[in-house]
Each structure stands twice: as structure tokens, then as C-alpha cells.
Amino acid sequence: MYIDPGSGGMLFQILAVMFGVLSGTVLMFSGRIKMIFAKWRRTMRKEDQQDETPKDDNNSNS
Known about the structure:
Elements: H1 7-28, H2 30-52
């Protein structure tokens, strides 16, 4: 099987462009991505706090 000597350079150029596009996209939407993760973490914390609080309605001070 013959591999052209110039194919490595072409492959590197394609991968470099793909990396640039991917990192640019992440940087453009980084604020939105952070907001999504923060919102998700808040909802997870609220669910955890609701699960941990004891629901003891029979202990009234009357």
C-alpha cells in the first residue's frame, strides 16, 4: 500500500482547522455553556436538599 508523502501535511492542516473551529466555537459560547452548567448544578443541589430535609409533620409544639 502506497501512502503519498504529502498526505501527512494535508492531514495536519485539516486537523489544525478542525481544532481551530472547535476551540473558537467553545470560546464563543463559553458564557452560555457556563450558565447551562450553573443552572444544572443549582437544580441538582435543590433536589439534594429536598431529599435530605426530614419531613416530620408530627413534631408540633402544641
